[in-house]
Amino acid sequence: MVKKTKKTAGSRGWRGWFTRGRVIGAGVVTGALVLAGGGIAWANAAGTASGYRTATAESGSVDETLSLSGSLASATRRDRAFGASGTVDSVNVRVGDTVEAGAVLATIDDADLQDAVDSAESRLADAEQALADDLASQTSTSSNSSSSASSSGGGSSTPAGGGSDGSDTAALSAAVDKVVAAQQSLLTLAQTAADALADAQDSQTSAATLCQPFLDATLADPGDTGDTEAAEGAEAADDEEDTATPLTLDAVKQLLADCQAAIAGVGDAQTVVASAQAAVQAGMTDLDDAIGELRAAIAASSTSGGSAGGSSAGSATSAGSGSASGSSSSAGGSGATASAADIVADRAAIDLAQADLDVARHDLTAASLTTPIAGTVAYVGFAVGDDVSAGSTTQVATIIGDDGYTVTSTVTLAQISKVRAGQTGTAVITSSGASYAATVSSVGLVNVSETSTPAYEVEVAIDPDGDTLLNGAAVEVSVDIAAASDVLTVPLSALHVDGTTYTVQRLVDGQLTSVPVEVGAIGSESVEITSGLSAGDEVVIADLGADITSDDATTTSGLGGQGRFGSGGTFTSGGTGSFPGGAGGPPSVG
């Protein structure tokens, strides 16, 4: 039997597995953003003569949805407390008032919360500047930019090219270009690895959800019929029992098959993560090698100009070693050259600062206290001018529900930024397939994760439409969080993401140009472009000549990331937990 897995939260990015000079695994989080979009017309489907697959920006529709899962609970009473401490500046309800789900009950002064947002924005700007400075240090052509070069240069800080002939200048220019290319390659590989890790975390979450019904299943007696099952289920509902309804052997076998397939998917995703992390490490080595070659070119240029003396050859040998440790040894001092490990660490610091900013912005919403259910106000434990504490058990507003139902689930920090009280969707009871109208009634204000990655609760109100539903029944909820029609769209694969920056590559007269864009709704196949492109613009969606490096170091050519990796084994991420199973999975039934 598979050990029950407790739900955890979404990723902060690379901090958990990027450290200065090495890459490690990260914890697994829950919540999966399902982006459902309309189709899009694809242009130039067979690759172009230049070796790129392209599509045309054109008018279309994009729908973005959030998929949640949880269990039904009677919405008979809710005690609501503020998610942040502060002074109450408005109370919008009185005892006896009737309220709708998502209504604002009261607010607090948000000055301190706004200060936290401003501080987080400042830290993000500092982190971005640190990356820019380190990148610049690697392409500096002054002899004092490398401790090896300066120590061999007789104490002279001669600009590169000083006194050298044209060939030295050309060599320096080529070496700088190689460093810049290696920098961009490393940053792209790091982004790809972070995306792969997020996909693996979503896969683990999905597997845990799909396997839970099998773990909870009870096998019915061989003589039981479907009618007996239904009668027992009704009796359990009447008696308010929490035990699971016994299932037939075939039903349990199907649950097992679903669970095993999900576990296999986890293994596939983890293989992709390992391959992507290996590519990052190779990219770090390439960048350090390129830095070493630039330092050697600087030393050679100084020698030809007469400033380096006879010791320049030794300097070139030392600077050209290209090892990560050699480059790192010069970083940190005045004018020192940053290593590839420094660049990866800088990128991770930006992601951490961005996550902190997202948290601060989300916490700002804690200034409003909303009700997760429709009903009648039964108690208000605060007044205007009162100082309230976050999560208080006494300073609350109590709402008595009208015998409706709610579903509570957790989502990641990246997802929570798009969720708002009042958004609508559809809830489907897993066992029966019956569907009901759903409304987001409450968006969590406090991080409920037990790991380093934040997660927030989202509560959805379900309208039973007069039906009596079973408490504890599994429910899948699809929430519409964005929709756009008759808007400019491109295929999702054309979009490049770097933190909060979005770009696409345009193909103009056979030349690639990176174009910054702003996006709206993001679907499973297409994305809305709000600025940066015009209808008819040709964008690149794939480089048909790109190499694909698999986990066994073999290289092929074609569309990157389209191959399927082997499954099985135990999924373990960063040593923080494991999900047993794989090809064998849970024991067979029957």
Automatic annotation (TrEMBL):
Keyword presence, Magnesium: no
Subcellular location: Cell envelope
Domain called Multidrug resistance protein MdtA-like barrel-sandwich hybrid: residue spans: 85-399
Low complexity: bias regions: 132-151, 313-333
Annotated spans, Disordered: 132-169, 220-243, 302-333, 551-590
Keywords on record: Coiled coil
Ranges annotated as biased composition (Acidic residues): 224-243
UniProt xrefs under Pfam families: BSH_RND (PF25917), RND-MFP_C (PF25967)
Gly residues: compositionally biased ranges: 152-165, 558-590
Location of the Multidrug resistance protein MdtA-like C-terminal permuted SH3 domain: 486-544
Organism superkingdom: Bacteria
Principal cellular location given in the protein's record: other
Record protein name field: HlyD family efflux transporter periplasmic adaptor subunit
Species: Protaetiibacter mangrovi
